[in-house]
Amino acid sequence: MKAVVVLLGLALFLIFALFIQSEFIKDIISFLPVTSTSDPSVRLSKVRGTTRNAGTNAHADPISHSNTASGLNFDSSNKDPNQTGRGRHGTISPSSSTKTFGQFSATESTTMTSEAVKEKDGRMVEVNETLVAILEKELDFDSSRGNLIIGLRMRLGNLLFQFAALIGLALRHHMNPVYTKSLHKLALYFRIKERPLDNNITISMQLNEGVKMGGSDAKIINLKQTKENVELKGYFQCTDYFSGAEAILRSELMFRPDVIKAAQAKMDHLHPGLWKSNVTKIGIHIRRGDFLNLAYQGRTVAPTEYYKKAMQLMLSRHDDCVFIVTGNAKTWATEELSTFGSLFFVDNGLPHEDMYLLSACDHVIVSTGTFSWWVGWLNRGSVVYYDLYPKIGYPLAADFDAKKYYPPHWTPLH
């Protein structure tokens, strides 16, 4: 009898052990309330690290007045969460950092397991779902809070810096991020979340950024929490403005399916079979043109020697490399760089399609300027940049701090 009881107990134990190992139970456990604190960093440290494809549907803001942006497409049908591919993935090492989001401020020390998620275009995306959900909740429209507005009529690279600053500063100062019409145009290219427009908002306070590229303005960074409607004007080309908001930015700055489809179709037309091949694709962005006439500001143009060194570095690190080149200097690139590797040009492309193609390459060599900066930031491989931009001693470099402009994992060359 005792033997029967022992065997029965052992069987029940094994069944229970198998049961709690199932993904279903893990997922339920991971989303159970684990602490009563309102601090997202503390909550995150006690919840299983999860990832999602950043293009998943974001919930619409609970507002229906005339300021609501409409018609945004959050289609997530082009993703296959069961596949993996090339890219950085695995375990994120334990880290300790202090982050501030609105009223939240805490030092977190977490170890999160990151799962690689692959879109049909082959890009790797690593986004912590729990953190994104917390930040999205913090950005939900709240009529008791002040509204924050940033946005001037600029080109794609500058608009992205302004969008990033809007999200980062809204989190920092516990305000509602509000789009201008120019910022809302980003919804044509990216899966940014639906948020109110500034049509009927009366501005109570206006602040101009008092620094140039690569620097942050203390009066904006340290803006006191307010219920006023605040408009910020500037370029905001500094990572200080969106430090701590990277997860939600990667979640929203995923290209729309129609942009991906159009860019890949153009690539297939110009170079049939190349995009889907197994070669290592190195994106190169070349900007000369307008920058050649702006040297007096300190806008340096990356020289031939930089591109040659960068290409040689990529060839030494990776096998079967091809170089996909966009920009405004095809003749120059053909004459100067064609002997260093197989060049495939994408001519006269739309800026957002070029940005997608370059950011979706395995690795990228960027030039100077904000367009190239965002190509590097959106790319999930290794990034090489020209480190003599802007030119020291010129107006553009007056407030420049390389550590606040270039991400630390990028490779500098000149």
UniProtKB/TrEMBL annotation:
Top-level taxon in the UniProt lineage: Eukaryota
Similarity comment: family membership: Belongs to the glycosyltransferase 11 family.
Compositional bias segments (type: Polar residues): 64-85, 92-104
Bilayer topology annotation: Single-pass type II membrane protein
Record key words, sorted: Glycoprotein, Glycosyltransferase, Golgi apparatus, Signal-anchor, Transferase, Transmembrane
Renumbered residue ranges of the record's region Disordered: 51-117
Coiled-coil annotated spans: none
GO BP annotations listed: carbohydrate metabolic process
Name of the molecule in the record: L-Fucosyltransferase
KW Ribosomal protein (keyword) present: no
Gene Ontology MF term list: galactoside 2-alpha-L-fucosyltransferase activity
Bias kind Low complexity: ranges: 105-115
EC primary class: transferase
Pfam families found in the cross-reference section: Glyco_transf_11
InterPro entries documented for this protein: Glyco_trans_11
Pathway it works in: Protein modification; protein glycosylation
EC number of the protein: 2.4.1.-
A GO term from the CC aspect: Golgi cisterna membrane
Compartments where found: Golgi apparatus, Golgi stack membrane
Keyword Lipoprotein tagged: no
